[in-house]
Give the backbone structure.
Amino acid sequence: MERETKILKEKILRLKEEKDVLILAHFYANSEVQDIADKVGDSFKLAKDAQNAKNKIICFCGVNFMGESAKLLNPDKKILIPDIEAGCPMADMVNLDDLDGIKERYDDVAIVSYINTKADVKSRSDVCVTSSNAMKIVSALPNKNIYFLPDKNLGSYIANQIEDKNFIFHEGYCKYHNFVEHEEVEDLKNRYGYDVLVHPECTSQVVELGDCVGSTKALLDYVGRTKKKGYIVCTEEGILYQMNKLSPDSEFIIPSSMKPCEDMKKNSLENLYRVLVDEGPEIILDESLMERASRPLKKMMEMS
């Protein structure tokens, strides 16, 4: 099995060079995929990596909205995704109907879309944000009212720290982070005495227990700075691969109520190899949609 994996990796690397492909992987992807990627990061870093890419082809080992974002920032490049069925349930919780009448109902309102949204929703938004830059961008917006979608937990986390704006929330959530049980996290904290690392897609009760609350990159930076005996990690288990690199002597505990992301795990070496051979599935978007949907993404990059 180990020899087969080695041969597969060699084939992927050879195809990558032959076809001038940049491989991007999210922190939540399988470790062997992270290992072979050119760039690994959170949604914001990978958006920057995609925007700065010089390669002819970008292969995004993540979920669909990430591939779409890469296409919006690189309309002339071929964007591949290893498994076209790798979606995001949170992104599916908002559609264009949810934006109807927002501008009419609220004066001086900005529609702020978490990057975890589909291209059509982005096309009706004023600006996009990630968990890395949401605080900075929303604080800088001149608007009094903020319609934040789709993640009510991230939106609430930001709203609690920005007092001079009125937030209206969409009722979306991450089907994994939202169901981390604060009672379990509190019990683990009391039992081990470890710092609690929390992604703001978790509920406010879990966030309140956090010693560090932030994006996957922020949580990694905290581990790299502190290198403590152990951590209770309230985000997807894929992050542990990078955390163990930063602090190999630390113990990392994922609450049992924090389930693995099924869609992120659809990225494998096998389908990465297959997509490089076939140059498909490819992210295809309507040109007029791309023009509209790219504006809030580009605005995000400028404001960050």
Remarks:
- The first strand starts at residue 21 and ends at 26.
- The chain has 14 helices and twelve strands.
